[in-house]
């Protein structure tokens, strides 16, 4: 989903001088799959991020995401919201001086502090007032995306018979209906580290959800071992997980992989651009990350999106 082109004058109109100062530099940032337009802003009062939501997002969804983002900013989970133009669906926030979590984890001396911080920030987020926040339906979305994709030419046969998997996830989560304010896209690119604490950015899918959904997303994209991932959930809860909680976490980790995997495949017009007839033909997430670091794979291209989708599915579908 490509955001519409905007002139410099259009963008400056969304950056009031009394809030950000005089703007001297605007730089587009290509991140995410939501269709939002994102720009880095350098102005006389500081560094900011301008985000304009996709016109395909309905107004009530935008207002909900903004409501969560504002509450998260007030709690120190999200960067400060500096200015909002609701009519234009534009949000200006303070830019975090730091790096994405994935890059920061390359320094082993700060790994423990990083994980402690993100768990603390998620615990704070999950304790926010839920008034006026509606629930998301990731299981329904994932099933719908699978049903839309499985009949397409080039769809991998090893991902075609997932009805029992979806049913099992639903049964597990029905037995554990906890619901909190959630970010719902805590992949490492949406977690910034400033050297002291983590900050969550990109609130486009914020809604009520299970408290483990955010942690399961992080664990999946970081490829954490099961024990390490469950330890993060226990740290979040302040107590060891019982068997029901462990089952919920594992079900959600699978669900995140299915939802994101089929979302990526849904962006690709021709699935034969990156065939994977057998499960062993699919790349691993490690393969995809390495190719991205080497600039051999671009997640904005059809081949890159298909590769990421296949890797997420291969990581998540029960053997």
UniProtKB/TrEMBL annotation:
Q: Which residues form the Aminoglycoside phosphotransferase domain?
A: 26-239
Q: What is the originating organism of this protein?
A: Labilithrix luteola
State the Pfam families in the record: APH
Molecular functions per Gene Ontology: transferase activity
Keywords from UniProt, A to Z, are: Transferase
Protein name as annotated:
Aminoglycoside phosphotransferase
């Amino acid at each position: 989903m490509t955001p519409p082109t905007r002139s410099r004058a259009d963008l400056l109109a969304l950056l009031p001088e009394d809030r950000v100062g005089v703007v001297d530099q605007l730089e587009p940032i290509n991140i995410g799959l939501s269709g939002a337009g994102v720009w880095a802003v350098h102005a006389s009062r500081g560094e900011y991020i301008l985000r304009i939501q996709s016109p395909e997002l309905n107004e009530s969804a935008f207002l909900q995401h903004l409501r969560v983002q504002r509450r998260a900013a007030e709690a120190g989970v999200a960067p400060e919201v500096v200015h909002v133009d609701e009519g234009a669906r534009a949000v200006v926030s303070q830019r975090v001086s730091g790096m994405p979590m994935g890059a920061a984890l390359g320094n082993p001396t700060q790994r423990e502090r990083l994980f402690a911080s993100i768990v603390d920030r998620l615990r704070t987020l999950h304790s926010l007032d839920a008034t006026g926040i509606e629930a998301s339906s990731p299981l329904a979305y994932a099933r719908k995306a699978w049903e839309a994709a499985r009949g397409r030419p080039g769809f991998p046969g090893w991902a075609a018979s997932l009805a029992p998997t979806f049913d099992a996830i639903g049964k597990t989560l029905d037995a554990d209906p906890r619901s909190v304010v959630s970010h719902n896209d805590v992949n490492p690119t949406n977690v910034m580290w400033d050297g002291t604490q983590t900050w969550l950015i990109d609130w486009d899918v914020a809604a009520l959800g299970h408290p483990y959904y955010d942690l399961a997303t992080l664990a999946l994209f970081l490829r954490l071992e099961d024990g390490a991932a469950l330890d993060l959930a226990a740290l979040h809860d302040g107590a060891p997980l019982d068997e029901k909680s462990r089952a919920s976490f594992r079900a959600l980790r699978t669900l995140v992989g299915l939802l994101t995997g089929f979302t990526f495949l849904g962006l690709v017009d021709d699935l034969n651009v990156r065939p994977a007839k057998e499960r062993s033909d699919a790349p691993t997430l490690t393969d995809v990350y390495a190719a991205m670091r080497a600039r051999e794979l671009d997640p904005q291209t059809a081949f890159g999106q298909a590769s990421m989708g296949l890797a997420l599915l291969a990581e998540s579908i029960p053997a």
